[in-house]
Design brief:
By secondary structure, this protein is α+β, with helices and mostly antiparallel strands. The chain has 26 helices and 66 strands. The strands form 17 sheets. It has a seven-stranded mixed beta barrel. Strands 50-57-54-55-52-51-58 form a seven-stranded mixed barrel. Strand 30 (574-578) and strand 31 form a beta hairpin. Helix 22 packs across helix 26 (1157-1195). 52% of the residues are buried. GO terms for molecular function: ATP binding; hydrolase activity; ligase activity; metal ion binding. Residues 1188-1197 have a biased composition (Basic and acidic residues). Its cofactor is biotin.
């Protein structure tokens, strides 16, 4: 056995010219042998484990930014040979595929003095050309399949086929791996396929040579593993049967062959034939001789020889414990390089591998990322959860994937090889079946000792079914068995046919991690829970959230159920069809296997039917067990969770529960909510809210507060799951042009920013009505956890379901209630939900809107105020019914105040108060989030007051442990300039901060110019004051007050900000973790402090964030080119931040401030002058912009139906209309263009933070664009149904 060999690896280095599991497997052996390794990789493989495992790694084609072209780097023989020279490589292991059987590559390495681990270039060439290999086999006395030499024309092909008889197979002479094969059952098929086969051979193998062989429909594929020393000594290591294939590619391999169990003589003949062929060509290293065996007669024929390590070599190693074929290949290569010929004969003893070991049987199953329900089409995507049981003496798993791996579309979709051995075949099958078979009680994320791969479709369920088939158990499977559809595997899944406007997976209660990681979950949790109750699920079970388009839109959400199931559809009024027949909403609906379910828009609102609403919820019995949790939730959010971290797309396959067991869970009669008790969603909404935290006269005038609640607000088309933007509806139409939207009680936000809505950053409660400049925004389930805007009011938590049904153009008015009303509202909705299970008893049901508040409420949101001459003022503010905001000191940034906030939090956490969920600390405050079911607002308030009173008066003796981290930064970068250009075209084109945020910051702070501002911005270390906002975004403040530049937030805020952008608002800077909306003034781009899957040395899977309070950040300027390279390393998980441990001493800080006091005073004086000038300018610019916007709104007083007066519209005109309300992001088409296909994109809308492509549609193909709808231009606002493009 190989383990007894003693060969020195000193002076050698191995390059692995491959990727994936085989590269990992080779490197593992090399490491055990203490042989240094070099990995090569392409851009899409930069995070792959073989790159991390190797001692050295080299990126292929580093200057090629085209992913498709870059991915071909593994075939770049000249480049790989050069790497060998540069890195002093002596050995190359090619693995399988790519260059493993490329004779030119072997010669190229030989000329460089590098040894390819495999046979000689001549043997590779001879065996690679199938017609040449057949001749060599005949010369060695090995029987071959009846066939011919290369055929050049159709005449030769048909003549041969007529001679040997049909069916025949056209084979590429240079082919392999099952590619380039075409079976022809008769002459007609041969004539039809011949030229195409030649062309495909040319495309795949750069050689159009083809030959014909007789095709045996009922055949076995059995191969013999051989190994030679290159000097004529060759042994075999037994056989492997690989008869279970799809598309001529193997999916199961086993040894010994079940076909040869009772045919020992045939086995000996085949093994001897393989050895004779090896001896005849003086084969060296590992190789495999493949045979076709007629299932009827037992006749065997040579197919081909693979002159490389076989994919399934592990099967042989599992029946010969201690054998490592890769080790033998390495030792053979080293001995050749060291001029010692090759492996000694005593290392290759046939007696060690003679007859099959009766006590061991090994089976391998290949796990592919492919969809068996769609002819095994490859399925690239993110593997959201991966679990493999640990390897042992009877279980081996060769893989390269783990949770977070992205499976590329550029390479073979093999994920893993699961190999088991057992005393006999039956036990091996049982063991493998246990590993692969799903079970009803299996939950993803809980270790059950099984194989679990969750993400895009894979073949695990199919593999498990193969193991259940009697034919396989009996060992009678042939090569055509799978392709003939004889494996009855119906996926327990549904397939998305059309994704509609937007559909996602959501669950309850969502994520409760904090740190700005959004809660997510359904926007309308009431309808969501109702749907789950109707199908018998846990109310919090995951389901679909579907945005319903307008009635005129052709967009529909449709899915195909492969197995029987039960569904319920609730929420907005929609049209639901099962196999084209109308289905009832708010009811259990039975879905048969093979049924198609579709959800369409249902039309406009009427007084007599369910109307309005935006989102529909579909519950499926038992949910989606293979959608894994991400940070403890299955909800889709900002690139994470759900299915693939995104909205559903056509072709997505989602596993559902087994159809065989669902019926026993049904309780008899199907539940249906009577129509008259189904919520009637209005277009004018009343929403109950609690005053606070900021609707007091410190921020708004008393009249302004009353006006806020008195007016109606219109839902903007720019709304989304992050926040619902509101537009003011005039209180007095005659005075509309001059009427202020919000009446502020102050001129600006002080250190918080130039606009009166600005405050020093603070925590937010879910459902807060955030005053984003002059635009109120309701913070929803994807909203930020903190920020720098005042929040006038907070929607009662039980009322937040209504937000999910706000449709753009709806109107809403907020009504103040008391905390006791909030408790009663929660009870009201819980009672309504509980009554659904009793839907047969209609008296238990009631109108969900039938709630009357007491009419009492707090005018002052301040729950308690602590004022003392020897300590900072403390204000406890109401922030809804599940949060209390605790503010310390005046609205000024003070490091000592931040220290007090930290001390307050630590004292509160030490008490372990039941019901507190988390604290969200920021500049001068902390938001205490709590569960009102576990602790009341009053009880929590009393506890917090007591804790604050227990704090010492001074915090100067506090020392905070932290770290100092270096971040690269590109100042005034192109990406942020592009974001500003987009803002100016789609949101606002004139403002004090436009066209350059940087020049504005310079003026606003009394600095000479933008260059000086940038210099100041990176001159000081920045202290992390808070971590939150979005995805653990850090809030940073310069340690040196001379560098504390201030700026207002953009008003309105941007809808797009690049990932890694760094901006400033007030005196606080933030690093944007992902692409998102934002209002900070941008001045540079750095690396984000967030990694979705925790990739990289400074992150972890359960801690995908980097920074924590009281860390210090130092920025080091880099060029855009340098940044791009660093970003690639970051994305690959290979960037390491410069980090050193440090502390922040409050005493040292106070001492430092005292030494620069005069300079700080001078800086702040110049800053105050700049702020005053810029605020005055902004006031005028804002009023001008508002006036223009009101004029635009006046002109757009009706639906767009085309150009004004309809003049010039052809009689036969057709229209492409807006499917949703939004704004025009880009007009792709132009007048005079001809529409060539239904997929031609005419216009791109921006709505709900999505780009919506408006396609031409089938009915407009061949038409000519003759104009645009009335007022249609880039940046224009449109409503659903508005005409965008006129087509003749």
């Amino acid at each position: 056995m190989s383990s007894s060999l003693q060969v020195s690896t000193e002076g050698h280095k191995l390059l692995v010219a491959n990727r994936g599991e085989i590269a990992v497997r080779i490197i593992q052996t090399a490491k055990r042998l203490r042989l240094p390794t070099v990995a090569i990789y392409t851009a899409v493989d930069s995070t792959a484990p073989h790159v991390q495992l190797a001692d050295e790694s080299v990126l292929l084609r580093p200057d090629d930014d085209d992913p498709a072209s870059n991915a071909k780097g593994y075939l770049d023989s000249e480049v790989i040979a050069n790497i060998c020279t540069q890195r002093n490589v002596t050995l190359v292991h090619p693995g399988y595929g790519f260059l493993s059987e490329n004779a030119g590559f072997a010669r190229l390495l030989e000329n460089r003095g590098v040894k390819l681990l495999g046979p000689s270039a001549k043997v590779i060439e001879d065996m690679g050309l199938k017609h040449r290999a057949r001749k060599l086999a005949v010369e060695a006395g090995v029987p071959i399949v009846p066939g011919c030499d290369i055929v050049d024309n159709m005449g030769q092909a048909t003549a041969f086929a007529a001679d040997v008889g049909y069916p025949v197979m056209i084979k590429a002479t240079a082919g392999g791996g099952g590619m380039g094969l075409v079976v022809c059952m008769n002459e007609e098929e041969l004539i039809s396929n011949f030229e195409g086969a030649k062309q495909r051979s040319k495309s795949l193998f750069a050689n159009d040579g083809v030959f014909l062989e007789r095709f045996y429909p009922s055949a076995r594929h059995i191969e013999i593993q051989i190994f030679g020393d290159g000097l004529g000594h060759v042994i075999h290591m037994g056989e492997r049967e690989c008869s279970v294939q799809r598309r001529h590619q193997k999916i199961f391999e086993e040894s010994p062959s079940p076909f040869l169990f009772d045919r020992p003589t045939l086995r000996e003949e085949m093994c001897a034939a393989a050895v004779e062929l090896g001896k005849a060509i003086k084969y060296k290293s590992a190789g495999t001789v493949e045979f076709l065996v007629d299932d009827q007669s037992g006749s065997y024929f040579f197919l081909e020889m693979n002159t490389r390590l076989q994919v399934e070599h592990g099967v042989t190693e599992m029946i010969y414990p201690g054998l490592d074929i890769v080790e033998l290949m390495i030792y053979q290569g080293i001995l050749e390089v060291d001029n010692e010929g090759g492996l000694p004969e005593e290392a290759l003893q046939q007696k060690d591998y003679g007859k099959p070991r009766k006590e061991l049987h090994a089976i391998e199953a290949r796990v592919y990322s492919e969809n068996p329900a769609s002819n095994f089409v490859p399925s690239p995507g993110i593997l959201q959860y991966v679990e493999f049981p640990p390897s042992s003496k009877d279980l081996r798993i060769d893989t390269w994937v783990s949770t977070g791996t992205v499976v590329s579309s550029f390479y073979d979709p093999l994920l893993a090889k699961i190999i088991v051995n057992a005393p006999n075949r039956s036990e091996a099958i049982s063991k493998l079946r246990f590993l692969l078979k799903d079970s009803e009680d299996y939950l993803v994320g809980e270790s059950h000792g099984k194989v679990a791969v969750c993400g895009p479709p894979n073949n695990i369920e199919f593999l498990a079914q193969v193991l259940e088939e009697d034919l396989f158990k009996a060992g009678r499977a042939t090569t055509e068995w799978v392709d003939h559809g004889e494996v009855s595997c119906v996926p327990h899944a549904l397939t998305v046919l059309t994704p509609g406007l937007n559909a996602t997976v959501q669950d309850l209660p969502g994520r409760k991690v904090g740190l700005g990681i959004p809660t997510s979950g359904p926007m309308d949790d009431l309808a969501f829970r109702a749907a789950n109750i109707l199908v018998g699920n846990n109310p919090n079970c995951e389901g679909f959230e579907i945005v319903v388009p307008s009635a005129k839109s052709p967009l529909a959400f449709s899915i195909l159920f492969h197995v029987e199931s039960i569904i319920a559809v609730t929420g907005a009024n929609a049209q639901v069809k099962v196999d084209g027949k109308e289905a009832t909403m708010w009811s259990q609906v039975s879905v048969s296997a093979g049924s198609k379910v579709a959800v369409y828009g249902a039309g406009s609102a009427t007084e007599t039917s369910r109307s309005g609403g935006l989102r529909v919820y579909m519950a499926v019995w038992k949910g989606f067990p293979h959608v894994p949790s991400y940070l403890a939730s299955k909800s889709t959010s900002m690139g994470n969770g759900g299915y693939q971290g995104r909205a559903l797309q056509t072709g997505d396959v989602i596993r559902i529960r087994s159809s065989e067991t669902y019926k026993k869970y049904l309780s008899g009669a199907f539940l249906t909510v009577p129509d008259y008790f189904v919520p009637k969603y209005p277009s004018q909404w009343i929403v109950y809210a609690l005053p606070g935290p900021h609707d007091d006269t410190e921020f708004l005038t008393a009249a302004g507060i009353e006006a806020f609640y008195a007016r109606q607000w219109k839902v903007s088309s720019a709304s989304n799951r992050m926040g619902i933007r509101l537009e003011a509806v005039p209180l007095n139409l005659r005075d509309a042009p001059s009427e202020p939207v919000l009446a502020w009680a102050r001129e600006n936000g002080g250190e918080g920013g130039s606009h009166p809505s600005n405050i020093l950053d603070t925590g937010y409660a879910l459902g807060s009505i955030n005053l984003n400049g002059e635009t109120p925004v309701i913070l929803t389930c994807e909203g930020p956890s903190m920020g720098g805007y005042a929040c006038v009011s907070t929607i009662v938590s039980a009322e937040r379901w209504k937000l999910g049904q706000f449709r753009p153009g709806d109107f809403v008015q907020f009504v103040r209630v008391d905390i006791e009303d909030a408790v009663q509202l929660r009870n009201h909705y819980d009672k309504w939900l509980n009554s659904i299970a009793d839907a047969g008893n209609s008296p238990s049901l009631f109108d969900v809107f039938d709630f009357k508040p007491t009419g009492d409420y707090r005018l002052d949101p301040k729950l308690h105020v602590v004022e003392s001459p020897d300590r900072y003022k403390v204000v406890f503010r109401q922030a809804g019914d599940s949060s209390i905001l605790v503010e310390f000191g005046p609205m000024k940034l003070d490091f000592l105040v931040r220290a007090r906030v930290h001390g307050f939090e630590m004292a509160a956490k030490a008490r372990n108060i039941v019901g507190i969920i988390e604290f969200c600390a920021c500049i001068r405050s902390t938001m205490c989030h709590f569960d009102p079911k576990l602790i009341s607002q009053n009880d929590l308030l009393d506890a917090l007051i007591e804790i604050e009173a227990s704090l010492p008066s001074s915090v100067e003796d506090m020392v905070f442990p932290g770290r100092k981290l270096s971040f690269p930064i590109v100042l005034d970068d192109k990406w942020n300039r592009e974001a500003l250009d987009r803002y100016m075209r789609s949101s606002r084109d004139q403002a004090v901060y436009l066209p350059s945020n940087i020049d504005y910051l310079a003026r606003n702070n009394g600095l000479k110019d933008g260059a000086e501002a940038l210099k100041v911005l990176i001159a000081s270390p920045w202290l992390v004051f808070g971590v939150g906002f979005y995805l653990a975004c850090p809030f940073l403040v310069p340690v040196d007050p001379r560098c504390r530049i201030v700026g207002q937030k953009m008003n309105p805020s941007r809808t797009f900000t690049p990932r890694g952008a760094i901006g400033i608002a007030g005196v606080v800077a933030a690093i944007y973790p992902v692409e998102s909306p934002g209002g900070y003034q941008l001045y540079g781009r750095t690396l984000p402090a967030w990694q979705n899957w925790g990739a990289g040395p400074d992150f972890a899977a359960d801690r995908p964030w980097l920074l924590r309070p009281f860390d210090q950040v130092v920025f080091e300027e880099v060029s855009e080119k340098e940044y791009v390279e660093m970003e690639k390393l970051f994305d690959s998980g290979r960037y390491k931040f410069k980090i050193e441990e440090c502390t922040f001493s409050m005493k040292d800080y106070v001492k430092f401030i005292s030494t620069i006091e005069s300079e700080v005073v001078a800086f702040q004086a110049g800053q105050a002058t700049g702020v005053a000038l810029e605020e005055a300018r902004e006031k005028l610019l804002w009023e001008e912009w508002q006036t223009r916007e009101r004029e635009k709104a006046k002109q757009k007083d009706g639906p767009n139906t085309g150009p004004s007066g309809q003049n010039g519209i052809p009689e036969n005109a057709r229209f492409a209309s807006a499917s949703v309300s939004g704004s025009v992001w880009k007009i792709v088409t132009s007048v005079g263009s001809t529409i060539n296909s239904a997929e031609d994109v005419l216009v791109i809308l921006e709505a709900m933070k999505m780009e919506i492509k408006i396609q031409a549609g089938e009915e407009n193909v061949g038409g000519k664009v003759v104009g645009l709808g009335h007022g249609i231009a880039e940046g224009a606002t449109v409503r659903a149904g508005d005409v965008l493009v006129i087509i003749e």
